[in-house]
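R.M. (postdoc): so does anyone remember the format we settled on? I'll just put the structure tokens first.
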């Protein structure tokens, strides 16, 4: 019960991550530029799985009993600390939208360029004179009628289902007859190849 409750809240907080990240990218890049940027974003997760397996092989092989902790606990400590550290750094470096960003990480001239690029990208003629609520309602129904939105939703759902494979990947490689360290190392090459293939397809 406790595991199910924990997983529910983890999923609830995690659910907005990918849509939010894609939304933020769409506020900085034109549609013709989003393919490569989205590939870079998703490749971060893919490469994380690859290097996660490499880190796991090193930790599980060399840290058993260090300071009285089992090696699998050290794996949680190290990967958890890295995640929390990157999250704290992200609070500082994550950009706002071009319309609300202030000069700092970009110059004022660069921010004006970013805003102009987005104005050129979006046709503003139909939205002039509309209230924010009416604009949001109009945008919602436009999205609901767009077949590409439903296609992307289906693809994203299938992609999330496919990520379950990664959970059992080390178990599958262990059936090849190798030890724990080699089995974990064998998990890395497929992820690295898939990341490279994503770059090539989206370039």
């Amino acid at each position: 019960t406790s595991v199910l409750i924990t997983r529910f809240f983890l999923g609830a907080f995690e659910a907005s991550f990918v849509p939010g990240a894609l939304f933020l990218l769409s506020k900085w890049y034109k549609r013709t530029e989003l393919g490569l940027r989205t590939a870079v974003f998703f490749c971060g997760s893919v490469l994380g799985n690859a290097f996660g397996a490499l880190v796991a092989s090193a930790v599980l092989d060399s840290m058993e009993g260090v300071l009285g902790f089992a090696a699998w606990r050290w794996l949680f400590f190290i990967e958890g600390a890295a995640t929390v550290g990157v999250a704290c750094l992200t609070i500082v470096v994550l950009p706002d939208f071009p319309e609300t960003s202030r000069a700092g990480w970009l110059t004022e001239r660069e921010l004006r360029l970013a805003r102009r690029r987005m104005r050129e990208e979006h046709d503003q003629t139909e939205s002039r004179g509309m209230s924010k609520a009416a604009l949001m309602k109009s945008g919602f129904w436009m999205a609901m009628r767009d077949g590409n939105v439903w296609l992307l939703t289906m693809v994203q759902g299938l992609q999330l289902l496919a990520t379950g494979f990664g959970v059992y990947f080390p178990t599958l490689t262990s059936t090849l007859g190798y030890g724990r360290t080699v089995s974990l190392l064998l998990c890395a090459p497929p992820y690295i190849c898939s990341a490279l293939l994503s770059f090539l397809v989206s370039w």
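R.M.: ...and that's the designed sequence above, right after the tokens. Also worth knowing: The radius of gyration is 22 Å. The chain has a mean pLDDT of 83.
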